[in-house]
Every structure is written in structure tokens, then in C-alpha cells.
């Protein structure tokens, strides 16, 4: 019988409903492991039995990574409190940078849940492409980045990569998130700039180099129970994560074409089956090749979507994916109350930042009634490095699919903030 649930980091858990947290709090001891500097939302402060603060390393990923030894000690204490019964403790984590640590802790203590072998194929972009391509699933051409050659013979290495993969090239970390340190490389000068970024990075990433796929981008956000996909939200994206970091709104709209939707759902099922994923959520990004018309795998994560994802699916499909995963991990009867109902009348957008000082906030050029949850204000100095850097979240609904689509298209030219470039400090 489950007695204790350990939440690894408050990130993404903050999307849980108070009802779900209270439901678990009544039946189980809930323990949240958080970084000393994390500011917790009131909903977590109110509804978690214990908050355990630990140190973290800020130089290994876009969010500080919790100290493994301290997390180990906390889980060990909780396991000791239930008499060493490994069936009584669960670890819950839906934050990209910590799913691997959660799997490591489960392995050390023999706890139920995603194993390191399963998570590795969702965390490392090179491993995941090898894993799905073995099942005949289309992937971009790719190679791990040879950082020794990058440092010692950049010109020859650039020519070799360009000949093998074509131009543009896509260079990115194999296990970061949110398009952090991603470069699109169209010529040798851009390769040189990307090389400088890699060599100066404090994050010690491994990188890969991918073929560039020219196509529209989609995502399939799934909830899986015993290998069965109980929900799959299929969305079209207005741009890529990389485009967002460059200043374009990252907007999502439900896929309306039934043939395209069925094609993407089938492709998503094949990828999840290829990776032997049995329980939880996946966030799967797919290109549809513009010239050939077929899906091409980009990447997949063993977690809920980030950014606007969880609130979006709750508005559009009446499913809170964090609640669903909490009930699943706990084996709670409330899981049977999760009944998605797609309305397909909602558009959301993560609004980008541009580097500089904000002078003005701009309203979107759309016909639908909308709301914006602004995260910035005039006078603030901002930068854009990943999906974590955002000006705000725009949401609108419209039961007229033609107007909904027209407003979605209009967002592609929307600039949410006016920014003054800062003058560099003189030496």
C-alpha cells in the first residue's frame, strides 16, 4: 500500500489543482524536495506535508539540478519511516531536467516507476533517435557533435558536416530543454558563432548536429495507462521553439483536418510503443515534411508539455495532465474521473522576449476576445535564451473555426513588446 509520495522539484507540480493536492494529502504523506532558492506557489505551501530544501548545481542545465546525495538522503529517510517497504513510496517528477534523477533514485531504492533504461531514451536526443529509427520511424539525419574536432579543426569539420547532413545544420544539446543553446547554421560564419557558444558554455552539455527538416511543426501530448493512450492532444505550432527564442510567438491550435490528425495520432502511437512507454505522459514533437508530406520524428519527452501546455489542455480538453499523472502514480480512484472532452476552440501562445529594456507592451491584432497574463512590464531589462524566458501567455477562444484560424495566423506577425537596445558599458 502506498503511504508516501515524494515530489521531485515544484516545477510543473505548480499546475496541479488544489483538489488533486488535497485528495492526495488526505490519503498519503506528501514530501516536496525543492531548491533553497525556489519560491513556492501558495497552493503547494498549503497542501504539501513537508518541504525539504536542498542544494543545487546551476551549471548543468537550464534549471539548477538538485543535489543527488541530499535527495537520496531524503528518500532514504522516508523509506525508513515506512519500515523499508519499497511498495509504500513513490517518486513523482514531471520536470525535464530531473526525470533522470527520479529514475536513478527509484533504481537505487527499488521503487516502482520509470526506470533509468526507459528514461534515458527520452532524455538523450541521440539515444531516442536510435531507438525509434530501429522501428522504421523516420528521423532527421544526425550525428553526435565531436567537440575535439570542433575545437581543433573547425573548418574541415564544418565542411564534413555540411556534406553529410546538408545545410542548414541544427546544433543542440542532447539533454537540455526549451531550445536552450540551439543554433541553426546556414554557413561557415554561423558555424563559427555556434562553436564559440559551445566552447564558452558553462553547462558542459554533450551536443548533436541534425539535418534541418523544412516543414510544419506539431506536438502530440499524451496520457498513457498500462500502454494504452487514453488521451492525445494533437496541436499545430505556429513556430519552433528556436523561432520563439528568436522573438516569434509560440502559438498552438488544435489540428482540425481529420486525416492529418489520424496520421499524427498513429505516428505518435508507434513512437510510444517503440520506446516501450507504459505509464504517464509524453510530449512528442513532430515535423510534417513540407515537400514529401509525411511525419518526421523530432523528439519526445517522458513528461507533460511545458510552458502553456498543461493549462492549454485543461481549457481545450478538460484534462489537467498533472492531476492525471498524480492520480496515476498514487493509484488513486480519482483517476477514473479523468474524462477528456475536446472542444477544439482554444488558441494559446507563449509570448517572446527580445533582449533589451521594454518600453511598451503591444496588444495582438486579432478579432477574438483574449486575455494576456503578462510576466513583464515597461522598464524591465530582459533577455531571451530559452522557453523559460517569456513576456506572457496569451489565450483566446472562438467557436467559429475560420476566425480562430485567422487569428492564429495573425499571431505569426505579432510583436508583443517594444524593446530599446541597451548600450554596452564602456571599458
TrEMBL record:
Gene3D superfamilies in the cross-refs: 3.40.50.20, ATP-grasp fold, A domain, ATP-grasp fold, B domain
Its recorded name reads ATP-grasp domain-containing protein
Work out whether the entry's keyword set contains ATP-binding.
yes
Q: Does the keyword Lipid biosynthesis apply?
A: no
Q: SUPFAM superfamilies per the record?
A: Glutathione synthetase ATP-binding domain-like
Q: Which residues form a coiled coil?
A: none
What GO terms are given for molecular function?
A: ATP binding; ligase activity; metal ion binding
Keywords recorded for this protein, A-Z: ATP-binding, Ligase, Nucleotide-binding
Limits of the ATP-grasp domain: 129-330
Instruction: Return any one Pfam family short name.
Output: ATP-grasp_4
Amino acid at each position: 500500500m502506498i503511504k508516501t509520495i515524494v515530489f521531485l522539484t515544484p516545477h510543473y507540480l505548480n499546475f496541479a489543482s488544489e483538489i488533486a493536492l488535497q485528495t492526495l494529502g488526505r490519503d498519503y504523506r506528501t514530501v516536496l524536495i525543492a531548491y533553497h532558492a525556489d519560491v513556492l506557489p501558495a497552493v503547494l505551501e498549503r497542501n504539501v506535508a513537508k518541504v525539504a530544501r536542498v542544494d543545487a548545481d546551476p551549471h548543468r542545465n537550464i534549471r539548477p539540478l538538485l543535489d543527488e546525495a541530499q535527495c537520496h538522503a531524503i528518500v532514504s529517510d522516508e523509506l525508513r519511516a515506512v519500515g523499508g517497504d519499497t511498495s509504500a513510496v513513490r517518486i513523482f517528477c514531471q520536470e525535464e531536467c530531473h526525470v533522470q534523477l527520479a529514475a536513478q533514485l527509484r533504481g537505487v531504492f527499488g521503487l516502482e516507476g520509470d526506470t533509468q533504461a526507459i528514461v534515458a531514451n527520452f532524455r538523450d536526443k541521440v539515444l531516442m533517435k536510435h531507438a525509434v529509427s530501429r522501428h522504421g520511424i523516420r528521423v532527421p539525419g544526425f550525428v553526435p557533435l565531436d567537440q575535439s574536432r570542433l575545437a581543433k579543426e573547425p573548418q574541415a569539420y564544418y565542411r564534413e558536416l555540411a556534406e553529410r547532413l546538408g545545410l542548414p545544420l541544427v546544433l543542440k544539446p542532447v539533454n537540455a530543454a526549451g531550445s536552450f543553446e540551439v543554433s541553426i547554421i546556414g554557413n561557415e560564419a554561423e558555424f563559427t558563432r555556434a562553436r564559440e557558444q559551445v566552447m564558452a558554455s558553462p553547462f558542459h552539455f554533450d551536443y548533436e548536429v541534425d539535418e534541418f527538416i523544412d516543414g510544419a511543426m506539431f506536438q502530440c501530448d499524451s496520457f498513457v495507462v498500462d500502454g494504452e493512450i487514453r488521451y492525445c492532444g494533437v496541436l499545430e505550432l505556429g513556430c519552433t521553439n528556436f523561432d520563439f527564442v528568436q522573438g516569434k510567438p509560440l502559438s498552438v491550435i488544435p489540428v482540425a483536418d481529420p486525416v492529418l490528425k489520424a496520421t499524427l495520432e498513429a505516428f505518435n502511437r508507434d513512437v510510444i510503443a517503440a520506446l516501450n512507454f507504459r505509464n504517464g505522459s509524453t510530449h512528442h514533437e513532430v515535423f510534417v515534411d513540407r515537400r514529401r508530406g509525411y511525419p518526421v520524428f523530432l523528439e519526445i519527452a517522458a513528461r507533460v508539455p511545458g510552458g502553456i501546455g498543461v493549462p492549454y489542455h485543461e481549457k481545450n480538453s478538460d484534462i489537467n495532465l498533472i492531476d492525471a499523472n498524480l492520480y496515476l502514480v498514487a493509484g488513486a480512484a480519482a483517476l477514473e474521473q479523468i474524462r477528456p472532452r475536446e472542444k477544439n476552440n482554444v488558441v494559446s501562445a507563449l509570448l517572446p522576449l527580445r533582449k533589451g529594456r521594454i518600453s511598451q507592451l503591444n496588444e495582438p491584432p486579432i478579432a477574438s476576445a483574449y486575455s494576456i497574463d503578462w510576466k513583464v512590464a515597461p522598464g524591465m531589462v530582459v533577455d531571451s535564451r530559452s522557453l523559460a524566458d517569456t513576456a506572457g501567455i496569451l489565450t483566446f477562444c472562438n467557436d467559429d473555426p475560420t476566425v480562430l484560424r485567422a487569428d492564429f495566423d495573425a499571431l505569426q506577425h505579432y510583436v508583443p513588446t517594444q524593446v530599446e537596445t541597451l548600450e554596452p558599458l564602456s571599458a
